[in-house]
Amino acid sequence: MNKIRKGDQVVVTTGKNKGARGEVLRVLDEKLLVQGVNVVKKHQKPNPMKGVQGGIVAVEAPIHVSNVLLFNPKTQKGDRVGFKVLADGNKVRVFKSSGEQVEA
Length: 104
Fold this sequence. Notes:
CATH architecture of the domain at 9-74: Roll
Radius of gyration: 17 Å
Shape: elongated
CATH topology of the domain at 9-74: SH3 type barrels
Distance between the termini: 14 Å
Structural class: mainly beta
Number of helices: 0
């Protein structure tokens, strides 16, 4: 079970995008693709078979999972995440600061 999943809102803690907030688009092992964060320019060759036009395009590059915190909507800040086993045996994610369960 991952602490950060696809669809979560995260806050970047370090790097050139420090303080930026975005939604996780993909989880790649220890790296994440976050919407609007770590945007790089990529030179792309045209591919008429796929209908891809050539030129310089902006794409999101992966960012390491240790450089983001899960966004806590109650405190409006980034927060660390832990796990807790409920009485019925289900394992859920909780915010470390308050102990409240993460929605979704």
